[in-house]
Amino acid sequence: MKSQETRNEFIRLRAEGKSYSDIAAALEISKDTCHKWEKEFKGQISRLKKEELDELYNLYYMTREARIKKLGDTLNNINTALDSTDFSEISPEKLLDFKLKYTEALKEEYIPIASPRQLPAGFDATDLLTVLGDLLNRVQSGEATIEQAGKESLIIGNLLKAYDSVELKTKLDALEAIIGGRE
Q1: Residue 117 in 3-state DSSP?
Q2: pLDDT tens digits for 17-33?
Q3: Are the CB atoms for 149 and 138 separated by under 8 Å?
Q4: Listed residue (165, 104, 164, 112) closest to 137, CA to CA
Q5: Average model confidence (pLDDT) for the chain?
Q6: Alpha-carbon distances, residue 174 vs 3, 13, 41, 113, 181 (angstroms)
Q7: Burial class of residue 14 in the structure, from the number of CB atoms within 10 Å of its CB (0-12 exposed, 13-18 middle, 19+ buried)
Q8: pTM
Q9: So where are the chain's domains?
């Protein structure tokens, strides 16, 4: 029987993305044991991978919160430089250009406090159109980016097509039942 330390090392190595061959050689276990432990410790491996990724995301400012903070700090530094400069040392165009770019980047990170309208259980075509109208309002108010709106509208459009297909099938089945009953 393998020690708990060996099992923990297997979990760590799998979370790092190591192959069964590499792990088997390093821990002196068989590939069959690797397969067995993969199934047994799948949840622990996933959690460890997620923790490591979250740590990297935070380290390299890849999370939205970290990006917003970094952009905000930089924008504050630019504002401070703009406030304290006599504009003879640094080109105002350059500072204003930076300010506009960082303001735009910070705006791109904005997430509205109010969440988009949710579809009720057992929704119908009218509900889908209402959600589509809500999306339009969020785009017009600046709460949703064009890219986000494109993705959402694609999903809503596909839901509408699927809904129409189901409705059409139901009506065709009803007609077939009526026609079949007359024969």
Answers
A1: coil
A2: 899 999 999 999 999 99
A3: yes
A4: 112
A5: 83
A6: 65, 58, 51, 45, 11
A7: buried
A8: 0.37
A9: 4-57, 62-108, 125-182
